[in-house]
């Protein structure tokens, strides 16, 4: 005869008492596990939601980034570096500089390591008479962008015009019936039209673009340019004066730097605004989720302790009633020499069994209920329910529930152990 | 075997104190069957509990096998009881969810016995419980229950058997059977102290003492 056999027989004999004890642990552990799992579901759901929104924002910003680059290509540069002696009134009046500067300036800026300008485009530009057609046109020579030596090359905003090729403005093409492949003679030099620009509604509609070298040759300006177009960075905290001073500094202050606030800049600002709004929206979402979690946590912090206390009280009550029901049995066991420590352990081991069984069943039920709840509630929906299984939780439940059960049964077990056999037996 | 000298016990209750035992002296030697008779409330059961090491006295001394159980600590006294004393009660006090077999073996919870199973088999055979071995108390007659309780009391080969109204709930045949077994225990060298109302017990006891109001009124102690 062993204590275990005694306990097992008693459990099988007083099934209701045992079942009620297991039920109370089952409910307590189930509520605890469900609450913890739902909080985890909330966290996982929040993480996934924010990651999704972040990805969407990145996607949209990437589109905007691409748009930005395209707009820049279409709308042009916003920074112009001109020769120092250029009269700006004259420049604004005729649309190009009458003075020139060495072409090598563009290389010096490229090699300077500056972070303030990008997309360097050396040009030579002049309004000229097109003798073959007897009309005035704007001739622009470009060799394409000069990459910055210290930065990863970016797709150029404006492509170079190959030698012996010409790009013509919309109005010229319409007037002269030019189209890609048409021959074009300019000041005795033969070109082939490679592209006709779309209508822009500006003097570019009456412009011819050719290779920089050929333009310099046509204009008698070999090795000279009359402007460097560029794009200034959208750096915060950099004033126009700082920008001018830095760029001019690279060129021994032999240039003037003009900034044109164009649509590109506005577009870039809008892009920044969209980015900031996305971040604000994400922040608001995160705050909303945090507030919801707080509410859920507060609910759990009230419900779980109440259920645990209720379960402990119920187990204590059941244990006490079990002790009272078994007083004669305890009396005779004590009389025949069973030590009080053994009586104590009989009740505590019973509590341990109740705790373990209730914890195992409660954990399973709590997990199933919370996973089903998470699947049905949009604010808790997670992509992979497996993420809700926390390995520490069943271990904690299987450890804490028997402890709670034994703690609740401690006082009744002590009463049983201290029971005076003479008092019990003399009553009988 | 058992020596109780000048034992007194007073119960303190809300309605005042009750003197249950007043200088009672009783003894039972090896092979002796002593019966204590008296009206209800005269202190018979208190005397039995005191003699069994279950109820401390206010005055007097009790010795079992030459040792005062109350001089021992609680755990040692429990071990002493397990080894030397067997108990039989009117209400049987069997563990309701254990079979006859398991009930007989409950003393091994306190004190392991190497040949417990063999001893239990012998007692079951001796007390005629062979076909009731796997039955729980609720499935037994009162006589069978008391015989089961008696087997439990005898498992450890005690020197002293204390019986409190063991025939109180039994029919005549069962009562005689139990008294005969107690008598045989004494005949085999054990000491029996029986407290009872039952006049039939006197026919089996070697000595009968009478109590009234916590005192022995006649008979040889």
Q: Can you summarize this structure?
A:
By secondary structure, chain A is of the alpha+beta class. Helix content of chain A is 60%, strand content 15%.
Order of helices and strands of chain B: EEEHEHEHHHEHEEE
Q: Structural class from helices and strands of chain A? A: alpha+beta
Could you give the order of the helices and strands of chain A?
HHEHEHEEEHEEEHEEHEHHHHH
Q: What is the CATH class designation of chain B? A: Alpha Beta
The CATH superfamily of chain B is known as P-loop containing nucleotide triphosphate hydrolases
Query: Into which percentage range does the β-strand content of chain A fall?
Result: 5-15%
**What fold name goes in the CATH topology slot of chain B?**
Rossmann fold
The strands making up the biggest β-sheet of chain B line up spatially as 5-6-7-3-8-9
Distance between the termini of chain A: 26 Å
* Mean pLDDT over all positions of chain A: 86
Find the structural class of chain B using helix and strand composition.
alpha/beta
Quaternary structure state of the chains depicted: heterodimer
